[in-house]
Write a structure and sequence with these properties.
By secondary structure, this protein is mainly alpha-helical. Helices cover 46% and strands 10% of the residues.
């Protein structure tokens, strides 16, 4: 992983006296593969609905070249466009799966082993 250190001021300009910020490059091979797969699924859904690119792009509120970028998995497309596409495809709830908490099976098992809490019976007066 390529790591570089830049000195950044609070207004974003580089300076010798500013704090250091570490910039890391993402694993681009995996990212590009996942984005390409996402774009293919978007194209499949559009074609399944028999919508031409021009009509689908208009519904998304983007240009045809932006839709093409989405369908090939270009990483420069804004996430808001993807959220709009999920809405058009009636899959709004899928946005909640992005960065969803991962299930911890060990914690789940430990919780299942714990006895259920019971309240003490009420005392009669």
């Amino acid at each position: 992983m390529d790591r570089t250190t830049h000195k950044i001021t609070t207004n974003g300009a580089r300076s010798e006296s500013a704090r250091k910020v570490r910039v890391t490059e993402p694993n681009t091979a995996d990212t590009n593969s996942e984005l390409a797969s996402l774009g293919q699924r978007l194209r499949y859904e559009r074609l399944k609905r028999n919508e031409p690119q021009a009509k689908f792009a208009a519904r998304l509120g983007v240009s045809i070249p932006t839709l093409r970028k989405m369908e090939v998995g270009d990483s420069t497309v804004q996430i808001g466009h993807w959220a709009s596409a999920l809405g058009i495809l009636n899959r709004n709830s899928d946005i909640n799966l992005v960065l969803a908490p991962q299930e911890d099976l060990f914690a789940k098992f430990e919780k299942a082993k714990m006895p259920l809490r019971q309240r003490a019976p009420r005392s009669r007066r």
